[in-house]
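not sure who needs this but someone in the group chat was asking about UDP-galactopyranose mutase from Thermochromatium tepidum ATCC 43061 so here u go. i didnt clean anything up, its just raw.
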Amino acid sequence: MRTDVLIVGAGFAGSVCARVLAEAGRQVLIIDKRDHIGGNAYDKVDEHGVLIHPYGPHIFHTNAKRIIEWLSRFTDWRFYEHRVLASVDGQLLPIPINRTTINRLYGLDLDEEGVAAWLERVREPRDPIRTSEDVVLNSVGRDLCDKFFRGYTRKQWGLDLAELSASVAARIPTRTNDDDRYFTDTYQFMPADGYTAMFRRMLDHPNITVQLNIDYFAIRDSVQANHTVFTGPIDAFFDYCYGKLPYRSLRFEHQHLPDTEQYQAVGTVNYPNDHDYTRITEFKHLTGQQHSGTSIVREYPQAEGEPYYPVPRPENEALFKRYEALAEQRRDVTFVGRLAQYRYYNMDQVVGATLKASITTQENIRKK
């Protein structure tokens, strides 16, 4: 098997890189061990006719105009602002925490200035801020921390807030107004025909060949490629020579409710303190699909299984740096994506990192 470029993984990183290199005139073979393209962003119509995300909800949002413009070559968009409620003390309350959350939870009637003053009174100043616990206590204090964050984090990561890097909790803001949007990015859209349709158009190029159900590690010695783009776990590529990098996995429990047009008021409801699952997502909110029934998914975080999330801790970052040093010695391989770069990337960040990496890849290929 011979090709200019072998790309391992047909998710965002692999597919974006494939398109860029194909348009630069490279013959690209992209493989994936799964039976579909799109990676974890893959979507499909379930047996009841509802468009679902088998690997959990994927909501696209970005502040980068160049990224939305690049992807717009392959999809039209549906405007969608994601909203999340958290089940706390018998109520469904907005998360991120805002004025509505605080007033309803504590029976108050504060304006924006009042909320800011209230938060200032209850917060526990932390300096320096090293952990996610530091971030949350410094922002909202202990009671809100315990009600909204501590239990959710324990389920999601299998760790306490104090054991996670500050970057995890820093992703979630606190607001003094009534803005109940989960994201505030300039561009908040869903692919109008779904993610899989977008990936299909992205990979529709005469210089791109797609082969599925192929495990790279089973064929790596039989493929002759001038360059390889690897989007899988970087520790696996190097045969775990320094030990395994920790990843967090998920188990998804999908359910169809045939006689229910709407199961919950918003796209996602978090359960920080109840149940073994972290959240329930109802897909029709995300897609805008009309259907007499509805399909939902419950997410159960777990230690074993497919790697979904790098675990952000200083010791894990130190281990990754050892693998990264090996990767930097390989001019014949580009490592890009959440697993290959051991980064808790959003989708737009993966696209941005891949567009940047594609430039370096082309330079390395030209130097051969």
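also Residues 2-80+190-246+307-366 form a domain with the Rossmann fold fold (CATH 3.40.50.720). if thats useful
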